[in-house]
Amino acid sequence: MSIQTIATTQAPGAIGPYVQGKIVGDFLFASGQIPLDPKTGEIVGTTITEQTDQVLKNVGAILAAAGTDFDHVVKTTCFLSDMANFVPFNEAYAQAFEAEFPARSAVEVARLPKDVLVEVEVIAYLA
Fold it and tell me: Is the pTM of this model over 0.90?
């Protein structure tokens, strides 16, 4: 089985020793995305809604680079800096999925890279 690395300029480059994603067989394993503008590397937004929207744009760019989309996401892991943001996060998150929602874990963490409010990683099936 081959392993392919995903790299796209449409999503932020890695800010550490990792890649945007790996395709293994029929699955994409995408690294967690935070709300960085892919062109400037700057944090986008100050609210959970604004940051979630940017995170999902970044995730969408990685999905597209792998030849798939949100309809093929089977699992997400969502990291929130404050569970008080859970309801507005869910509202923004739900907009990314037109068909059925994927399986999901959502947890509060003590801190995220660059002190952002949200990070999302996905596993997607390649159709």
Answer: yes
